[in-house]
Amino acid sequence: MKAILIVNADDFGLSEGTNDAILQGHRRGIITSTSLLANGLAFDHAVALAKAAPTLDVGVHLTLTEGAPVAEHVEALLAPDGKLPLSNQPFARALIAGRLPREAIRREFAAQVAKIVDSGLRPTHIDGHKYIHLLPGITAIAVEVARRFRIRGMRIPRRLADSLSRPARLPGLLAIGALGALAYPAARDRCVPDRFMGFMDTGHLDHGTLRRLLSIPRPGCTELLCHPAHPTPALSALGYDWIAGYAFEAEAAAVGDPAIRREAEAVGWQFGNFGEMA
Fold first, then answer.
1. Most distant CA atoms of the chain, gap in Å
2. pLDDT by residue (tens digit) across 233-265?
3. pTM
4. What is the rounded CA–CA span in Å between residue 277 and residue 125?
5. DSSP of the chain, one letter per residue?
């Protein structure tokens, strides 16, 4: 059986430095796919880069956190400052209390996808910023919107292929695995990779870590998550410099290294994307 590797870079559109790192990682290295934030500060820049790189697979990074909403009349989603909250916690609390604002979420998700489609891009997959699409009650909305826009691919981390390289992230890994298992039945008709890799090491995917993760090809289709970026004042202003100690530049260098791609192909990985799955 073939060992297909989708290397997906999240947060396309977050900043111009993020966009540039993702494009470089695609042109020179192992990135095959990216997920675009419709409310990202560098959205237009990302769209222009994507149109100049037609081999870069582009999906939708659905979000209910950070920045301005795309849709109108979604006050139920907003923090007191009129923007989306900084974390998923308000939605988790609303779910527990039985007050999840499903209609506002549906309107916002549809507006985000429509903005990307209207830009001239044709998204091939859907996933979620901070895994928001895996929260029970929200997965079904994400799938509904994907069907409406005929988007076949979807990230559901139902089988995890990470090592225990960062024990502090183990509780998060267990939570993501549990949420993925709950979400999978709702997304059964979507094109979902067989396994998911990178949660434990994203933000720290240096050359050594990538070589370790990719040393043994896995049969079927594996999605590897990454977050490359070139640090910029815009990224610093968003507070991303300190998150989990992310080494954005080292990750950008590793995923953009042609040698890593050659080594992965030499052991049997075949690079692919969500569009090819569908």
1. 53
2. 777 777 665 555 778 899 999 999 999 999 999
3. 0.95
4. 10
5. --EEEEEEEEEETS-HHHHHHHHHHHHHSS--EEEE-TT-TTHHHHHHHHHT-TTSEEEEEE-SSSS--SSSS-GGG--TTSS--SSSHHHHHHHHTT---HHHHHHHHHHHHHHHHHTT----EEEEGGGGGGSTTTHHHHHHHHHHTT--EE----SB---SS-GGGHHHHHHHHHHHHHHGGGGTTSB--SEEE-TTTTT---HHHHHHHTSS--SEEEEEEE------HHHHHTTTTSGGG--HHHHHHHHT-HHHHHHHHHHTEEE--HHHH-
Q: Residue 44: which of 115, 129, 149, 130 has the closest Cα? A: 115
pLDDT tens digits, residue range 79-92? 999 999 989 999 99
pLDDT of residue 238: 72
The pairs formed by 75-78 with CB atoms below 8 angstroms and a separation of 24 or more are 75/104, 76/101, 76/104, 77/101, 77/104, 77/105, 77/108
pLDDT of residue 168: 85
pLDDT of residue 277: 85
Domain boundaries, the chain: 3-64+124-129+153-277
Phi, psi of 168 (to 5 degrees): -65, -20
The stretch 134-141 carries a mean pLDDT of 96
Check residue 234 and give its pLDDT: 75
CA–CA gap between residue 39 and residue 51 (Å, rounded): 18
The CATH class that applies to domain 3-64+124-129+153-277 reads: alpha beta
| φ and ψ at residue 151, rounded to 5 degrees | -100, 120
